[in-house]
Specification:
Blueprint: E1 2-6, H1 11-23, E2 26-31, E3 38-39, E4 55-58, H2 69-86, E5 91-95, E6 107-110, H3 123-138, E7 143-147, E8 150-151, H4 158-164, E9 166-167, E10 170-174, E11 180-181, E12 184-185, H5 186-198, E13 203-207, E14 213-214, H6 215-226, E15 231-235, H7 237-254, H8 266-273, E16 276-278, H9 281-287
Parallel strand pairs: 1-2, 1-4, 2-3, 4-5, 5-7, 6-16, 7-13, 8-12, 10-15
Antiparallel strand pairs: 9-10, 11-14
Helix pairs in contact: 1-5, 2-3, 7-8
Pfam families: Epimerase
Domain NAD-dependent epimerase/dehydratase: 4-207
Organism: Pseudonocardia humida
Length: 302
């Protein structure tokens, strides 16, 4: 079996490529940076003279909640259209996100039919929802996977953001710590990608670890594994929201000279303050997905 992987030089795409090689399959690694078999920015248009592959796992895209709206749309929607056009005859596995669920209300063991929703307050959720609609419209036989908060070796978003928020021995989080969250290890996500690529299922599937965890427990485990002596302090949403608004305004004023994202965003606040859990029954029964529990063991070397 020959599998093409977009975003192969990134966190999830790279993990998929390594797993494909361990399976003994042939992999075509597509990415913008060095190390890819083929250098390709999916926003530039369809791939010229694409080789034949049996399946595509589409991992490339923008995962920032602070990027320019136009940039989000180009990467997540127009880029997905270019990947679809490049491999019209291959099985298609689209890695989406749980951010397509309504961020304005709690997500409590949500089933796949509860998203996409009509409106999103952020460009990331809106662009990923539009990409899902595009995939399902053009390729009804495709598989769409919805992970939430992907973590693990090579993580460039979630873990760095948590650790970067530690200030003077404290990590400030939103809510009260008792809210449940579904997390997705990159190993579990890769497992789902390979099951989808080799099977004949179609449709949308939530992909998470075996069971939800408490946010307070997850944050404490990350800090302990990394040896960070910090206390987690929780603040209510009513206080965190104006702070996030102020942080985003300050970030925009600083402009391009400020390389990093704001310490707090409205997107992060809405996702942390409420329960975010997903029902993975469909993935278990249809894909044969058997996830492992949430674990940050080994995070000291991530």
């Amino acid at each position: 079996m020959r599998l093409a992987v977009t975003g192969a030089t990134g966190f999830v795409g790279g993990a998929v490529c390594r797993a494909v090689e361990r399976e003994g399959w042939s992999v075509l690694a597509l990415g913008r940076r060095g190390g890819a078999d083929v250098r390709w920015d999916i926003t530039d248009g369809p791939l010229p003279d694409p080789p034949r592959v049996d399946a595509v796992v589409h991992c490339a895209g923008s995962v920032s909640d602070t990027a320019d709206r136009r940039a989000q749309w180009r990467a997540n929607v127009e880029g997905t259209a270019n990947v679809l056009a490049s491999f019209p005859g291959a099985r298609f596995v689209h890695v989406s996100t749980a951010s397509v669920y309504d961020p304005r209300r709690p997500t409590v063991l949500a089933t796949e039919d509860l998203a996409p929703v009509a409106r999103y307050p952020d460009a990331y959720g809106a662009s990923k929802a539009a990409a899902e609609r595009l995939v399902r419209d053009r390729r009804p036989d495709a598989v769409v996977l919805r992970p939430h908060a992907v973590y693990g070796p090579g993580d460039t978003t979630l873990l760095p953001r948590v650790l970067g928020a530690v200030r003077r021995g404290a990590l400030v989080a939103v809510g009260d710590g008792t809210q449940r969250v579904s997390l997705t290890s990159v190993a579990n996500l890769v497992r789902a990608c390979l099951l989808a690529a080799r099977g004949d299922a179609r449709g949308v599937f939530n992909v998470t670890d075996d069971a939800p965890v408490l946010l307070a427990d997850a944050l404490a485990a990350v800090l302990a594994e990394r040896g960070v002596a910090a206390r987690v302090r929780f603040v209510p949403l009513a206080l965190a929201w104006p702070l996030a608004c102020a942080a985003e305004v300050a970030h925009r004023w600083r402009g391009p000279a400020d390389a990093g994202p704001p310490r707090l965003t409205r997107y992060a606040v809405t996702h942390l303050a409420r329960e975010r859990t997903l029902d993975i029954t469909a993935a278990r029964t249809v894909l044969g997905y058997r996830p492992t529990p949430t674990s940050f063991a080994g995070a000291a070397s991530w």
